[in-house]
Amino acid sequence: MGPAAAAAPALAPALALALLLAAAARPAAAWDLWALRCGFSADCECGFGPDLRGLECDLARNLVGQPLVKQQVMKGVREFLENGNPVKPLVMSFHGSTGTGKTYVSSMLVRHLFQGGLQSPYVHQFSPIVHFPHAEQIEQYKENLKRWIQGNLTNCGRSAFLFDEMDKMHPGLIDVIIPFLGPSWVVYGTNYRKAIFIFISNAGGEQINKMTLDLWRAHKDREEISLQDLESAISKAVFENPQSGFWKSGIINEHLIDFIVPFLPLKHHHVKQCVISELGQQGLEVRLDVVQEVADSIPYFPEEEKIFSSTGCKTVASRISFFF
């Protein structure tokens, strides 16, 4: 029941139709038992097969220049999975500027948790531009979103929900999912405590970049930056911004986010690593001259020192095509 298949106004009808079709495929009694088992039983894992060692190796080998991300993601997922009876879902919020790896890590995460990764029927992605584009329809979106989450959790309590571009989400909309995020056994007849929610946002990226640059100028190595160095700046930028989907959100006031994950700006040598990785993925020869030229062609900031990539590794793949 993936959101990409339908526009926002059709969410509730699509959900109702999907449930109706599923019910039609089973006798009524069988459907009731199946739904209850998946809603309340730990036996219904719905393609959930976590590979923590694989995730850790993937992060170590392929995620460039993000020590805090590796630390926070592994800590969050490991603690969550080691608890056979969690009191609430795992809620993580990814923050950073474009091209630093937020979407990449979220796809990596679900790939090592669910069979089929992003294609799993139990992994659900939401985009404000695609699914919630019109501010005047926010009340309808709230109802759609609540029913959408509820329906998918009824289908399988072990589900993942990815909310992309939270900085473009209409303020107030996301609060409708608060009942699904807190410590409770049942909500709307659904056991939801084994679900995973990931929020992805560019908001806070400017503050993260500024603080990273300030620390660099203070001769503090990038890898020495701690979460405590960044947390307050991220919170102020993201949660007190009227343009943010988290503005005055109960998700923040009720402390429902378990892990804030900052993505740092990437330096020149990180971009070169991205180029090498991309060449390998495209089956192209790793030529050092191409690696250097692609990395040099990307804009860096600040204007004087040119320390950090303005677009991270986002444009690396498209730039490689100019050299082959």
Bin the helical content: 40-55%
Note the overall shape.
globular
Query: What class, by secondary structure content?
Result: alpha/beta
User: Strands of the largest sheet, in order across it?
Assistant: 2-3-4-1-5
Topology as a string of helices (H) and strands (E): HHHHEHEHHEHEHHHEHHEEH
Number of helical segments with 4 or more residues:
14
Strand fraction equals 5-15%
Major sheet attributes: 5 strands, parallel
- Taking the alpha carbons of the first and last residues, their distance comes to 40 Å
Radius of gyration: 21 Å
- Find the count of extended strands (DSSP E, 2+ residues): 7
Low-confidence stretches: 1-43
- The chain-level mean pLDDT equals 85
Q: Can you give me a brief rundown of this structure?
A:
It is built from 14 helices and seven strands. With 324 residues, the chain is an alpha/beta fold.
Write the layout of secondary structure elements.
Elements: H1 11-24, H2 28-40, H3 52-62, H4 67-82, E1 90-95, H5 102-111, E2 123-126, H6 128-131, H7 138-155, E3 160-163, H8 178-181, E4 196-201, H9 205-217, H10 227-239, H11 250-253, E5 259-262, H12 268-281, H13 288-297, E6 300-301, E7 308-309, H14 316-320
Parallel strand pairs: 1-4, 1-5, 2-3, 3-4
Antiparallel strand pairs: 6-7
Helix pairs in contact: 1-7, 3-4, 9-10, 12-13
